[in-house]
Amino acid sequence: MELRIDRGAVDRARRLAGAIVDPVAGFIARHSTVSVERAVVRLLGVEGAGADGVPLANRLVDALPDRALGAAAALGAAIAETGRPPATIAEAVAAGEPLPDPSATPLTALRAALRPYADAALARIGARRRERDALLARLPQGEPPLLYVIVASGNIYEDRTAAVAAAEAGAQIVAVIRSTAQSLLDYVPHGATTEGFGGTYATQENFRIMRAALDEVSERLGRYVMLTNYASGLCMPEIAAMAAVERLDMLLNDSMYGILFRDINMQRTFVDQHFSRRINARSGIVINTGEDNYLTTADAVEQAPAVLASQFVNEAFALRAGLPPEQIGLGDAFEIDPRLEDGFLFQLAQAQLARQIFAGAPLKYMPPTKHMTGDIFKGHLIDAMFNLTSVMTHQTIHLCGMLTEAIHTPFVGDRALALDNARYVMTTARNLGEEIELKPGGKIERRAREVLDGAVRILERVAERGLTGAIEDGTFADVKRAREGGRGYEGVFEKHPAYWNPLDEALAPAAAGA
Amino acid sequence: MELRIDRGAVDRARRLAGAIVDPVAGFIARHSTVSVERAVVRLLGVEGAGADGVPLANRLVDALPDRALGAAAALGAAIAETGRPPATIAEAVAAGEPLPDPSATPLTALRAALRPYADAALARIGARRRERDALLARLPQGEPPLLYVIVASGNIYEDRTAAVAAAEAGAQIVAVIRSTAQSLLDYVPHGATTEGFGGTYATQENFRIMRAALDEVSERLGRYVMLTNYASGLCMPEIAAMAAVERLDMLLNDSMYGILFRDINMQRTFVDQHFSRRINARSGIVINTGEDNYLTTADAVEQAPAVLASQFVNEAFALRAGLPPEQIGLGDAFEIDPRLEDGFLFQLAQAQLARQIFAGAPLKYMPPTKHMTGDIFKGHLIDAMFNLTSVMTHQTIHLCGMLTEAIHTPFVGDRALALDNARYVMTTARNLGEEIELKPGGKIERRAREVLDGAVRILERVAERGLTGAIEDGTFADVKRAREGGRGYEGVFEKHPAYWNPLDEALAPAAAGA
Amino acid sequence: MTPVKPYGDTLNDGAVQLSFTLPVAWSEAADEAARQLAGKMGFTDVAVVEGRAIASNFSFFVVYARTPASIDVSAVHAPAAVRETLSIEQVDELIAKRVGRALKVVGACIGTDAHTVGIDAILNMKGYRGDYGLERYRGFEVFNLGSQIAVEDLVRFARERGADAILASQVVTQKGSDVANFTALAELLEAENAREDVLLIAGGPRMTNLLAAELGYDAGFGRGTLPGEVATFIARRAAERASA
Amino acid sequence: MTPVKPYGDTLNDGAVQLSFTLPVAWSEAADEAARQLAGKMGFTDVAVVEGRAIASNFSFFVVYARTPASIDVSAVHAPAAVRETLSIEQVDELIAKRVGRALKVVGACIGTDAHTVGIDAILNMKGYRGDYGLERYRGFEVFNLGSQIAVEDLVRFARERGADAILASQVVTQKGSDVANFTALAELLEAENAREDVLLIAGGPRMTNLLAAELGYDAGFGRGTLPGEVATFIARRAAERASA
Lengths: 514, 514, 244, 244
Ligand code: B12
Ligand code: B12
Ligand SMILES: Cc1ncc(COP(=O)(O)O)c(C=O)c1O
Ligand SMILES: Cc1ncc(COP(=O)(O)O)c(C=O)c1O
Prior knowledge:
The complex is a heterotetramer, with two copies of chain A and two copies of chain C.
Chain A: H1 7-30, E1 31-33, H2 34-43, H3 56-62, H4 71-82, H5 86-94, H6 107-138, E2 146-151, H7 156-168, E3 173-176, H8 204-221, E4 226-230, H9 236-245, E5 250-252, H10 257-262, H11 266-283, E6 286-288, H12 292-297, H13 300-320, E7 328-329, E8 331-333, H14 343-357, E9 364-366, H15 376-392, E10 397-399, H16 412-428, H17 432-435, E11 436-438, H18 443-465, H19 467-473, E12 492-494, H20 502-507, H21 509-512
Parallel strand pairs in A: 2-3, 2-10, 3-4, 4-5, 5-6, 6-7, 8-9, 9-10
Antiparallel strand pairs in A: 1-12
Helix pairs in contact in A: 1-11, 1-13, 1-18, 2-3, 2-9, 3-5, 4-6, 7-8, 9-11, 13-18, 14-15, 14-18, 15-16, 18-19
Chain C: E1 15-22, H1 28-40, E2 44-55, E3 58-66, H2 88-98, E4 103-109, H3 117-123, E5 140-144, H4 151-161, E6 165-169, H5 177-191, E7 199-203, H6 209-214, E8 219-221, H7 227-243
Parallel strand pairs in C: 4-5, 4-6, 6-7, 7-8
Antiparallel strand pairs in C: 1-3, 2-3
Bound molecules: cobalamin (2 copies) and pyridoxal-5'-phosphate (PLP) (2 copies).
Residues 178, 181-183, 230, 232-233, 252, 254, 257, 262, 290, 293 of chain B line the site of one pyridoxal-5'-phosphate (PLP).
């Protein structure tokens, strides 16, 4: 089943996306943010939180004499001066000790002092990545579409129980949904958590608890079960850093979601998404972008071109951060009104279009949510048609829809039924996609062309206006965001000529190859 | 979505089917059965039952001095003698009066005496048929696949409630399932019934009650809702006669079902099915054949060729009884194991094959039953894939599968969910069949060829051995039936040279045109 | 009317379908346990039609059974907030005639809830399912504060603007967060003696007019509400107040 | 082990899903009636998540709620008729050694039931899901009478052949017809003082070993039974009897 698509239009769209993000690159290069610095500090070994629960990373970065020089410089100076490791220094700072002014220490000295910790950080990330590769080789995870389910009880221990049960029921990927709007916190909570609304807090300890449980069940089942969380909101780089060292396998990580759907400042997001993706590139983590969010508030048929345009932009940003296509899980969702005649044909067109345009990407396909109702029987059927679309169009990451989507975060039984649903449909229609062809010039092909042309038109408008301007105008998801408005703007700062970030350097796309 | 099929093989199969049924025609012409005679008697106006509940039609036919002459002759003689109408005569016979020996009355006299009643019978059938045509013209029933549901409470009054509710919920056809094995009764029960196992007795009064209720709701909904029952088992002709005068729209009516699945004598069945179909032809009733039964006991993948072979035989018998293609609802079912990889592709192949081979026939597509389990959620999905196959391959009569198939005869809520299921799938994928093509030489086409070739091989074997012999050998459904074995054999008799059946004559295919 | 029971295929057969998961490994005994458990719930004729392991320590069951419980629907009082809906023109006219000015309506998704689609469907010009939202009415001046609005901010805003009606939405209901937030809003208004000044309206997928009353609201609207229903309710109540 | 409740997403949250139909026209009040009815069934935290008209006089509901009921699974006794299944060879050997002759097994679908697939799956050579049927065993001489066999005929046949075991199947369970027929069979055997001479075994989708015991049978087999389980049971019991 192949769509005949206008390659010229596809190339044009890619060029436009490049033209859209490149101007932002300069800005990104000149700026850093508090969460970029906290990520650096965390990678250098600062993990815990103070008695008051405030993470040491936040304490340290807030205490920087001059953040424009970067946290690495200050830490390097402190190490050079005291000989103490970063963790100890952070505790001291939390206890009230001031940090030395880096400019007092010779550059060579402070860099030499920090170097071993930076190397250790990179070594740790590399080790975790090799560990994953070895596990995947020994415990193959099975064929795509990879069945992905969410756990969201709010209590990490219940989540662990649910995750293990889901894995036994056939889940290949488990995502821990975050507590309501953790995106808006300008720090990463600390420790194991048992309270959360609509989800469970993303904390390093919670990551560890889930990873250990999934590693155990992976061994038992003889197949590696992946773990997903969110590097999204105000702490993208830090979560990417934590995920790298706790061997998460995927992260929701979008270049514009925070701006559009969480009113996070756009400059903050641009800088944060870039550094977080550099880390992901190195740790081998697959990102999942959030195009599904465009469809939850607006009509899915109308928004299809916007989704495709966003996929091009996300791809462009990701490539420039050093992520290879096989780590770019572009998102899409099955959200067309189930009452629409031939709606299924539209879904097929859109899914197949993305599949052919982003041939190398592990596409992330999201289930019906908006049109799910309390009628769980009807909902189960809509999920079945979603499952059918996914197997016919070879989506890679398949987020299983829940028949109780409109009712509650998934019950353990709901997940089992969802996995049964996917397994049944994807088995009985396994090769349907290979065995049929789309009528040339038919409804499906015409719809695909319409979506692609629409995306090109959007990208042209954005390229012309410039990305920031376009967002200010409300080009995406009908929301207008001001360049200096939104949450977290105060955490963005211009780098001093002497700003130093050894990890950023080491992770730079060029270096990344090494 | 078209299969490239070997037209030569199709023609060959049709020729073989003709060669298989033609030899039986001679036998049919030379014989009659007690239920053929009872059907004649009923059409001539004998309806009620005696105090003991035994139908007057049975009393009359059992009292025939010489059944070889036919009931019409005896009745004609009695009318000529007494001037009383058939109904009164039957009551007298039930009361113990003997019937006159027809040979005592001059042929011309007895025929003249009966003629008005025979004409009245035909007029009644014609009037009911025109009534249906008028209703359909005024209250169009809607597009196929026509949604067909069953009611089976055992109580005709509960069935009526259920039927009206089903119609309001979208059903276009309602079938009243018969009480367990009514097939085996050598009479048709009388009156309204409130007791039955797994179904409700087929009686003329029950037919009336349902027809009235459905006519009422049809007017209210502005669309004609059809009524179905079973002309099957030992009373095929009588039920066809009752259905004709009560304006049923469809009848389950198979040329071999009784023989194979109810151990009814084959000679009895051959004669009965022929006369019942002559009546159906005249009354405009669409028959539904029972090929689905082949799949309930054996593997659906293996049995596919047997189903197709049976469809050819049923078609041949039907055409010879005067049924036009548009009244021949050949059966098939969606019974492949849901665990089979690509099973859905096989279902598509088989359904599309039947659709193209029997282009003029209103195909009857039966839902998954055998592989349905207590897991109603899974079952609902299997029904959805069945619904998808039906809309993709343009089946005409669509028996909606119930998620509770493995549990109980349908609840009112089950029917509503089943109709929702069909409506959703058939709307969202309405034109999918038109928008795709089957890969030439692919799995689906290869499977279709395999099924067609298999059917031809079966028909060759049967043609060679002769139909009766083939049934004796267990060629169909692996059951062996003896020529003179099985139920109802005693009810078959050779016609006397003077045998007379004015209705059979009037309904003869030649005459049918008139 | 007489009490009715659930209906399977015969009046008052009491047929009910259940499904649930037990945190135990599956076994014949687990099936039997499910059967006995349904018995303890008060059901009779319990048939465990499906029972299987969905994980090493969880078993899933589908059950059909009969309940002895019945209810007289005619005795149940759950008046919808609005019987018959007025047209836009009728609403505007009613307000113009009886109130003589546009009504100030302040809406928000309160607490940490960010599900604005529902409240937007009621307020935005566009509306819902072909029914225009309150912004489309001449009779309303609409302030849609959007998502994640602390009840303090909502009340302050409403009082500053002299709102005639406050429309609060809650879509996330986990752990009773909706009831908690709705209650907080009502109590804050009471505390500030501002409750009488406004029509207080609650909405969300789990809301019913009955529940709203229990929470001290003037009305509640749930699944599938159309803007016109809300507009009609506000206009009628405002008209009454004006003439009172 | 301690009692457990149904499990939604938290231990002992008691979460249960229900669906049912009420024979009333839909209205807001019908939703509320459904909520109150679930309350009368003993559930708490009742949420009517779906309520709609499925016909002019019928409304369908989907409900999620919590049950206070709990059960101690470890205290439930429902021994399957067979723990671990023996291989064909083991069964044949056991019979050969301990009984010394082939066991006569008579099977039938009794009453008006024509659902032979199940009993055939147990008896026919072919078997079920890759497990061979009793005809495949040297240790059994199988008589499969097929469908719609009156209990009188079954008993007569069994006595004439001196059957060691009678296998009765019932798939149609509507209006308790299965229990009625099974009971009739057991009582007839009692009446003819023939009960002790045979192993009496019941089977069908609704059968459980527990129910069979209540009906006076030696064993009962339900959904998904494999022939090997039945063979093992008969062989073991026959062996015991022989050595008794
Ligand atoms: C769209 C959606 C989102 C979007 C919201 C976008 C937006 N700007 O609104 C996004 C993706 C952001 C989102 C995020 C989350 N969501 Co959400 N989301 C949904 C979804 C799919 C649809 C909701 C919707 O738009 N319905 C359509 C509208 C029109 O219906 P409605 O809200 O019921 O409104 C109607 C009536 O209720 C009424 N009404 C509603 N409010 C009001 C107010 C007044 C005054 C009146 C008169 C009437 C009224 O009128 C409306 C029109 O008829 C539901 C699942 C579902 N299918 O319901 C989950 C769902 C609501 N979300 C859920 C969760 C848990 C979340 C998250 C917490 C998940 C996470 N951890 O990230 C986050 C956090 C968001 C937050 N902080 O609240 C859960 C809630 C579980 C529960 N019962 O508590 C649900 C049920 C999904 C699930 N099963 O997990 N979500
Ligand atoms: C196939 C089938 C038929 C076929 C039967 C063909 C045949 N020769 O068997 C046909 C088409 C003839 C048929 C007819 C009818 N059927 Co039917 N049929 C079914 C169906 C679809 C599958 C049954 C089946 O074969 N299951 C597969 C076998 C392998 O499973 P099983 O029977 O449970 O057997 C296993 C175990 O139970 C056990 N077992 C069973 N018996 C025994 C005996 C012993 C001794 C042992 C040890 C073990 C054992 O071992 C087996 C292997 O594991 C079911 C629905 C369903 N999906 O269950 C309806 C169903 C059973 N039929 C039903 C009905 C109502 C009928 C009819 C009465 C309908 C009608 N009015 O025409 C007729 C009448 C038949 C009659 N006189 O009994 C209803 C019964 C409702 C109820 N609960 O009472 C069902 C549930 C469908 C429905 N929802 O309406 N049917
Ligand atoms: C990219 C991305 N980040 C985050 C979230 C949700 O998390 P939060 O509520 O913390 O923003 C989503 C949800 O759809 C998402 O797509
Ligand atoms: C042609 C035909 N007749 C009759 C029946 C069932 O009715 P009975 O049990 O009375 O034979 C069926 C059921 O599948 C059938 O297909």
